[in-house]
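Kindly inspect this one:
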Amino acid sequence: MISTFPQPIETPSLSPKQVAKAIGVSESSLKRWCDQGRIRFRKTAGGHRRIYATSVIEFLSQTGHPIVRPEILGLALEPTTSSSIEEVSSNFLAALLEGNERRARRIVVDLFLQKVPVSEIGDRLIAPTFQRIGRFTSCGEIETFHERRACEIAKRLVDEIQMMISQPDGGPLAIGGSLLHDHYALPSALVETVMRQRGWCARDMGTNLPLNSLSAAVVDLQPKLVWISLSHIAQSDQFVREYLEFQASVPPEVLIVVGGRALVPEIRNRIRFSASCETLTQLESFVDTLNSNQP
């Protein structure tokens, strides 16, 4: 389990009575689940239980328990339970362009509660949506601030989903991020979340990360896997040279996974790696293969 309590999705911490109403159970049952460790909580100085909405949603995702009063958790879910990702994608796009974070959150959290894998949410909802937003920006149909605001909203939503996924005790460690001059945080955050959902202790090291610093992190943290998100490469030759130096410095038992829209064939063919993943689903399949080969 995660050792610290996550911040709330949109509401302050809730009382057991509020949470009991939200999920349609008795307050005594709710308190018993808290004491059993099934729902994480903290205690105030006065000894009262306080529960964050993210802890409740984590419990709902794991157990399939229904939400009776979603508005208490700050969700107020729209009736999208029977809708496919493709059917809600237009609503998600509109919510991001409007800056309507609450509406965007309802869509993403609803899919998560339907047990749609994060890899599918990323590949079939978030990635196509930002491809459309990028085209709109290039054509001058929307302003740059619309795109930047949408990125910030989506990153917060991914962070919130991540907080609903318990970090496994003793899982293999993976680290990664995006490199120098690459300020796109969302792809690496999605990789971290997918890795966590597949049982890894994953740590996103952030954006604009020099390769020599990532190499130092490998020495310090000794991960089993390193991922590199490549949304932007400033100079191809310099990247290849620095990457090959990095790759040579990494112990042979450490896996290197690369991916991203900037990893075009002419660059991919000049570097060496353990896996190249064009989608989160491919990454998930690769990780599942690793998991199945664990002794």
Q: What stands out?
A: Confidence is low (pLDDT under 50) at residues 1-11. Residues 287 and 293 are 10 Å apart (CA to CA). The first helix runs from residue 16 to 23. The radius of gyration is 20 Å.
